[in-house]
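Tutorial handout. Part one gives the primary structure; part two gives the three-dimensional structure as tokens.
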Amino acid sequence: MSASVSEKKDSTTEEKIKTAAKIVFYKKGFTATRTRDIAEEAGLNLALLNYYFRSKAKLFEIIMTETFAGFVGSMKVILDDEKTSLEEKVAIIAERYIDFIGAEPEIPTFILTEIRNNPEGLLKRLPIKEIVNDSVFIKQFQEAVQNEEVTEPNPLHFLMNLLGLVVFPFIAKPIIMGSRNLEADQFHALMQERKKKIPIWIKMMFTAV
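Part two.
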């Protein structure tokens, strides 16, 4: 084994590889990505990459789990906050996730691909059902329905509409930008506007008679 490969593993190199893998997997997906692509993105030789992570599948599993954990984990914190109202939770989700996806624009497509390809594996890795059903959000939503403050009794419609309003524009970004010849900064400004508009739209949807 060469000196470059036999050196002791260090966290800096591991993080460099994971960062490179995230970039490549987000852009190409699992099937189209070669281990060599990740090594080139990281600026390392292929032997060193294989020393740290034995297979592309193992590296993909790590990136996928961290991506979902970050996306869903943040949601759990918001939904379980007893100090914020239902309306405040909507505003926080809209603001944080627009910023989050704006910084990592490949995440929505990456997540949708994995949901389509391996939904059962996703549910095993992430306790999504528990995060939603046992949340403070659900209790607040049920109370709002009982008090006739919300006219739609199914919280799934609430969550689907909210996430759709936040996530879909990023998925359809090329179409949206092309339809009005928008530049990147104009699209960014459009998404910043949505931070304020989404809470208003959601309230109108679920308080309509």
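Part three, for discussion. The two ends are 72 Å apart (CA to CA). The CA atoms of residues 172 and 180 lie 13 Å apart.
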